Amino acid sequence: MKYTGYIGTYTKGDSKGIYSFTLDTDEKKLGEVSVAAAIGSPTYLNLSKDNRFVYAVANAGEAGGVVAYSRNTETGELKELNRQLLQGASPCHVSVNDENQFVVSANYHNGTIQSYEMNAESETLYPSLSIKKHEGDGPNKERQDGPHAHYAGFTPDQKYVAAIDLGTDKLYTYELNKGELNEIHSLHLTAGSGPRHMTFHPNGKIAYLMTELSNEVVVLAYNEENGSFKELQYISTIPDDFTENNQGSAIHISSDGRFVYAANRGHDSIAVFSTNSDTGELTFVDRTSTEGNWPRDFALDPTEKFLIASNQESSSLVLFERNPETGTLTLLQSDVTVPDPVCVKFLNQ
């Protein structure tokens, strides 16, 4: 079987925009890397649940925003539908709800969360419906001089938008009422931790949040009744004796909920944790080198027998085989070149 994936990149060097690639699960090999859409720095992207649309953040000189593409389900070709840009820096994260009605983005530089509505007739994005700016800062004056929103995504029940701010050490919960974002809850995490990204357990009751500054996974209980979160555990993603610069990046979970994976930029590794089926808390299993520099993101393939990591600074994709019983990773391939890769996404199954 061949599975198609997409890669968001920085276009500050040789990259042209969004790239596509294939994973051949029989040959256990990555290949067929090509430009799927030429656009400025589409560092993060997401697909609609039915795989018909791709939404990407984009930079257009002095303006930034979100771009909508239709996807040819036979060829994988991306066709731009429209873009919604505002003056200023581009966002760093984008998500779409299951019904493909609303898109939300997080802007690191502006410290804002934005929402957009999909035009059901033209399949284009309306201008931003709501913009919410966070307030505050944190103890790390170099990285937390003000709000720096890094993630905005829908909760598993699709009732709320969870937003993470690295600058304020907060996890916010918003209600999305006809496209309008209304804050209903916030959780202040450990000061200086610098929260970045999160993923939810398949049971919908536990979330795992990756911190960039303290290099930890925070285990959280999620209350779907009111959208609140409660801290359960903090666990490090790097060795105790590692003292060089490291910045936590991506976090993902296997669909059976048994293993959580977290990437380390600096230590250049992926940490593997097993989950407690009763409490959701984590136990460290292993760390595997990404065979490159600065792993910004990674993804499990649709079979979940493989994991693909993107090394931003060494411009490479790396393929690992995954043991579904132990969660551990075995290197298969590290010679695939993609310029300045950031985000990795496979088609939804």
UniProtKB/TrEMBL annotation:
A Gene Ontology cellular-component term: cytosol
Bias-annotated ranges (Basic and acidic residues): 132-148
What is an example of a GO molecular function annotated in this UniProt entry? 6-phosphogluconolactonase activity
Coiled coil (residue ranges): none
Gene3D superfamilies for the chain: YVTN repeat-like/Quinoprotein amine dehydrogenase
Residue ranges of the region described as Disordered = 132-152
Q: Give the record's family classification.
A: Belongs to the cycloisomerase 2 family.
Q: What is this protein called?
A: Beta-propeller fold lactonase family protein
